[in-house]
Each structure stands twice: as C-alpha cells, then as structure tokens.
Amino acid sequence: MGENRRFKRKICFTYKFYNSPADYARMREVSDRLCREYAISVIENPGGRAKNYAEWQAEQNGKPTHRGTIRADIDRAILASTTERDFLRVMAGSITADMNRLFAAQEKAQKYSF
Fold first, then answer.
1. What is the average pLDDT value for the chain, to the nearest integer?
2. Per-residue DSSP letters for 81-102?
3. For residues 9-21, average pLDDT
4. In CA terms, which of 14, 77, 85, 110 is 20 to 30 Å from 22?
C-alpha cells in the first residue's frame, strides 16, 4: 500500500449564460404557443412597470401618493404657464413647497420620537 497515488483534480469552468433580446423573444413565442396549446392564459399586450402594492392601495383608499402629487404639480404648472420659462418657474415653486412640507413633517416626527 505504499504506492504513490495521484489525485485527480476536477477543474470547473463557469460560463455566464447570456441571452440576447432575440433569444428572449423566441422563448416568449414558444411559451405562448405552449400556453395556447394547453389552454393556459397568455398575456397578449404586456404593459410597462406596474404600480407597487402600497401605491395601488393608497390610491384605492384615496390617499395621496408621490406620483400623484408630482402629476398634480405638473398639471398645475402646465395650466398656469404660457411659456417654458413660466413652466419651470411654477415647477420650482411647487418643488420648494413640497420640500418645505417634507421638512416640517420630519421636524414634527423628530419632536415626538424617543
């Protein structure tokens, strides 16, 4: 048993798997075909990013959201301005007002924190 044994080393190479957009489109086609074949629903026109649950829930309960506030500020600025310069001036004023409200809320929260 005093033989000189050689131990084989296993060498592993790791390759990063990459798919091109064309590969993903082809996978989507195959997936849709299989879903239709087995009567599983298929999303025909996928949209963009959806709202997160907290934002959706706030809208359902009639509470203001960040996006809703920004959208309202932009709509207000469009109605109140006739030129691009006016629009930027009105937006700067609404951003300043939003920041003042945020700082006031933070100060109030710090006042009552332990």
1. 79
2. -SSHHHHHHHHHHHHHHHHHHH
3. 70
4. 14
- What sign results for the dihedral spanned by CA atoms 54, 60, 65, 70? positive
For residue 55, give the 3-state DSSP assignment: helix
Structure pTM?
0.44
Residue of higher predicted confidence among 54 and 4: 54
Structure tokens given for 25 = 């489109």
Neighbours of 77 (CB within 10 A): 19
Supply φ then ψ for residue 75, to 5 degrees.
-60, -45
Please check whether residue 77 is in contact with residue 90, taking contact to mean a CB–CB distance below 8 angstroms: yes
Residues in the chain: 114
